[in-house]
Amino acid sequence: MKDERTFTIKQTAEQTGMTEDTIRYYEKIALLPRAERKDNGHRIYRQEDIHTLRLIACLKKTGMPLEEMRPFLAVSADTDPGEYPELVELLKSHRENISRQIAALQQVVDFIDLKLEEGRYRRDCPDEKPGGKRVSPAEMSYFSVPAR
């Protein structure tokens, strides 16, 4: 067995940007394999564990629920995605959801920009601004788009 560097939970937390409590929680719910222990009972982590935690953080940033991450964490990092078409489909579906969220948020940003440009911040302002430009129904409906 080769001599592999190990890390304390504190070092692991620093490298991943997670709290020690979060790392313990991911172990508790089996998203992260149980850490090996030193003779004194302290947890030790390997570089592979740090990679797994970084993947969890990345998937979490996309809004993926922890339970939906399990299949992605079960395959190794060097696995050919073609070997797991069901995971590819899950990821494509998740990507589409994110794209819809981005589009909905872009509508909100556009609406805010319009209001800032016009100098009108309240929805109940008159339909016309000085200069005669009317606010279209599309502009006023921006906030009604569900972000899913």
Automatic annotation (TrEMBL):
The lineage's top-level taxon is Bacteria
- What SUPFAM superfamilies does this protein map onto? Putative DNA-binding domain (SSF46955)
| UniProt KW keywords | DNA-binding, Repressor, Transcription, Transcription regulation
Which InterPro entries does the protein's record reference? DNA-bd_dom_put_sf, MerR-type_HTH_dom, MerR_fam
Region of interest: Disordered: 123-148
MF terms (GO), sorted A to Z: DNA binding; DNA-binding transcription factor activity
Domain named HTH merR-type: residues: 6-75
List the PANTHER family hit by this protein, alphabetically.
MERR-FAMILY TRANSCRIPTIONAL REGULATOR, REDOX-CYCLING DRUG-SENSING TRANSCRIPTIONAL ACTIVATOR SOXR
What name does this protein carry? MerR family transcriptional regulator
Q: What is the lineage of its organism?
A: Bacteria, Bacillati, Bacillota, Bacilli, Bacillales
